[in-house]
Design brief:
This protein is of the alpha/beta class. It has a single domain (3-195), classed as Vaccinia Virus protein VP39 (Rossmann fold), CATH 3.40.50.150. It contains six helices and nine strands; from the N terminus they run ααββαβαβαββαβββ. It has helices spanning 3-12, 17-25, 57-67, 84-93, 106-115, 152-155; strands spanning 46-49, 52-54, 74-78, 98-102, 121-124, 138-143, 158-169, 174-182, 185-195. Strand 3, helix 4 and strand 4 form a beta-alpha-beta unit. The model has no long low-confidence stretch (mean pLDDT 96).
C-alpha cells in the first residue's frame, strides 16, 4: 500500500479532516526501521526494536480522533516510541500548541529526537508512570501502551475538562478508554474494545 491508498482508506473510515491532514503531512517512512521503509504505508503495526512497535495507522487515527484535539492545546504522549504520533499531534495542535513525549527506552527516545528534528516537540527519557509533572497540567494525554489501569499520577496531570485516552485491559486485549476530568473526578466517556498494544513498561 502506498501513502495515497492509506489516506483513502483512512478517509473511508470517516476520520476527521484534521487527522487525515496530519497523516498526509507526516512521512511515516521517516519513523520506521530502514529495512521496513517499503512497508511504511501498510495499515499494520511495525517493529521499531526493543520489543516495541509503531502502531497501525488505523489505530493511531482512532486515538487521535478520540482525543478531540484542538489548535493551541498542550498534549502529552506516554510511550512515545519512535516519535511518529508526536509528529502527528504536533501537526494537529499547530504552532501555538505544545507537544511532549515520554519514552522509557533510552535508545528509542534518542532516535525519536533525531526523527523529530523538524517538529517543535520535546521528548523525555523517563518512566511514563510518573507522567511529566514539570510541564503539567495538560489539555490532552495519550498513553500509547497497554495498561491494566491508568496511573493516578498521570490522571492528576490532566487539566479540568481535559481528556485522556489509553488502551486499558489485559496483556492480550485492551479497550481504548476515553476519560474526562470533571473537577477531581475522572469520568469514562467512551470505550472502544478490540485493540492490542505492547505493554506499558
Amino acid at each position: 500500500m502506498n501513502k495515497s491508498l492509506l489516506l483513502k482508506s483512512l478517509r473511508g473510515r470517516g476520520f476527521p479532516k484534521q487527522v487525515i491532514n496530519a497523516f498526509s503531512r507526516v512521512k511515516r517512512e521517516d519513523f520506521v526501521l530502514q529495512s521496513l521503509r517499503d512497508r511504511a504505508y501498510e495499515d499494520i503495526a511495525l517493529p521499531i526494536g526493543h520489543g516495541q512497535t509503531i502502531s497501525q495507522p488505523y489505530t493511531i487515527g482512532m486515538m487521535l480522533d478520540l482525543l478531540s484535539l484542538k489548535k493551541g492545546q498542550k498534549v502529552l504522549e506516554i510511550g512515545s516510541g519512535c516519535g511518529y504520533v508526536l509528529a502527528l499531534l504536533s501537526e494537529i495542535v499547530g504552532k501555538k500548541g505544545e507537544v511532549f513525549g515520554v519514552e522509557i527506552v533510552e535508545s528509542l527516545a534518542d532516535k525519536s529526537k533525531i526523527n523529530l528534528q523538524d517538529y517543535d516537540v520535546k521528548v523525555y527519557n523517563q518512566n511514563g508512570a510518573e507522567g511529566l509533572g514539570e510541564h503539567a497540567p495538560y489539555d490532552r494525554i495519550l498513553i500509547s501502551a497497554g495498561c491494566e489501569s491508568v496511573p493516578d499520577k498521570v490522571l492528576e496531570q490532566l487539566k479540568e475538562d481535559g481528556i485522556l485516552v489509553a488502551p486499558v485491559g489485559s496483556r492480550f486485549e485492551q479497550t481504548l478508554t476515553v476519560m474526562k476530568r470533571v473537577k477531581d473526578n475522572f469520568k469514562v466517556i467512551e470505550e472502544v474494545p478490540g485493540f492490542v498494544f505492547v505493554r506499558f513498561v
